[in-house]
Write a structure and sequence with these properties.
With 236 residues, this protein is an all-alpha fold. It folds into two domains: 5-177, no CATH class; 185-236, no CATH class. Helix content is 75%, strand content 0%. Helix 2 runs antiparallel to helix 7 (127-155) and helix 3 packs antiparallel against helix 4 (71-99). The chain starts with a helix and ends in an 11-residue tail after the last helix. The relative contact order is 0.16. Residues 232-236 have low confidence and may be disordered. Keywords: Cell membrane, Membrane, Transmembrane, Transmembrane helix, Transport. One of its GO terms (cellular component) is plasma membrane.
Length: 236
């Protein structure tokens, strides 16, 4: 039985705000770590405003912290961030038919096409709810992420290690909550398990960002064969 429209709208709104806040909390960690890596507050904030991709941003400052802000360090940081950001391009392929952006109107949805906005959108059954899920989640994450980035950058060393507060787990837990209902199917669970195993075992040996791409590609190939999902019976 389909839910009433107002109930669906409230559900999408509450999920979007919850995911936005949980993800935004981790921005405190990014802000603090970015400043400790050698970037100033303005540079840190610009990264969150324009790059706006948590994985890419952490990869960027991770390389900067290890290699410094010299030419080679910045170049390596950009490449690492780019590798992690490639996945957003695949999300865009999924979201473009839904949003149908035109001309310069593509810029805003392109910026907001991230893990969370795509996950919330695709979790909805109705097209209207999918669009609302994308925009509301993207906007919520953008606002909270940038606000928390600023707080983390300003407080800096006073926070200590942000992971001590469990902020790194908050975003992951929120994302897991979104995809959990889909993991009840054998095929989806198997694909997710395969991706986790591949990413886990390749991370120590491959550059930042590459394990995610390898895991994603393997999952796509595995999913295309549809080995574990029972075939629908055709009623004659």
């Amino acid at each position: 039985m389909a839910k009433p429209k107002n109930q669906r709208e409230f559900s999408v709104l509450s999920i979007s705000l919850g995911v936005g806040f949980a993800t935004g909390l981790y921005g405190i960690s990014f802000g603090a770590l970015s400043v400790s890596a050698g970037l100033d507050i303005v540079q840190t904030q610009v990264l969150s405003l324009l790059m706006f991709s948590g994985g890419s941003q952490f990869a960027f400052i991770g390389v900067i912290a290890a290699a410094g802000v010299g030419g080679i360090g910045v170049g390596a940081a950009v490449v690492s961030a780019w590798l992690l950001g490639i996945r957003n391009g695949f999300y865009a392929l999924r979201m473009a038919p839904l949003l149908k952006p035109l001309g310069l109107g593509k810029l805003i949805p392109a910026l907001l096409t991230i893990d969370e906005s795509t996950a919330v959108a695709t979790a909805q059954k109705e097209i209207a709810d999918q669009k609302k899920g994308f925009w509301l989640t993207g906007a919520a994450v953008f606002v909270f992420w940038n606000l928390m980035t600023f707080i983390g950058a300003v407080l800096g060393d006073a926070l200590g290690d942000p992971k001590n507060f469990g902020l790194d787990a908050a975003a992951a837990a929120a994302f897991l909550g979104l995809i959990w209902p889909r993991l009840m199917e054998r095929q989806t669970f198997a694909v997710a398990a395969l991706a986790i195993l591949i990413a886990t075992f390749t991370t120590p040996y491959l550059p930042a960002g590459v394990p995610v791409l390898v895991a994603g590609l393997s999952s796509v190939i595995f999913g295309l064969f549809n080995w574990l999902k029972p075939k629908e019976q055709v009623i004659k």
